[in-house]
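Re: weekly structure request thread

Next one in the queue (198 aa):
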Amino acid sequence: MFVTFEGLDGSGKTTQAELLRARLRAEGEEVVATREPGGTELGERIRELLLHGDHVVPWGEVLLYAASRAQLVEEVIRPALERGATVLCDRYVDSSVAYQGGARGLGVARVLELNLEAVCGLMPERTFLLLLEPSRVLERLGSEQDRIEREDVEFYEQVDAAYRALADRFPERILALDGGRPRDELAEEVYGALRSTS
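Done, posted below.
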């Protein structure tokens, strides 16, 4: 099964992915946990450029994320799924659609189409979208922020709106949850929803 975690920076998606990974492994499942951008040698180099490099134009962002994603699908995600593992990915196509398609104004449909080509149509069976008020992003991030995390509240409001529109458009795949809830309570809801899907 292929599962992704999405949400604004600071929404708790990385924490929830890790909690689910630990629980599934404790039950004896093979779990492959990865992240975007990253997860491969090429992806980690692209991650460094995107998050810690100088200014990147919006279409440059889209193409770099898509390149990292294509490599991750080919090297990690598809092989793991083919051998029957559960794959948990911290961010995937929806991130590009929300951040670059929505907040950067490049167009949801155009960014989605490009990314579907990059991943040869491979989409998750379940996506957990952790919602967080955009005004809370900056308080959750702390002082060490990457290039994208340094965006203002208006940017995050646009990302949030794009994510919510995606959840409305794909309700059979995307489950929107309150990322502000207590960590363990949220983890139970994630686990229960996953088990009801599989």
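The longest helix spans residues 58-82. Helices lie at 13-26, 41-52, 58-82, 93-103, 108-118, 137-141, 153-169, 183-197.
Next request, please.
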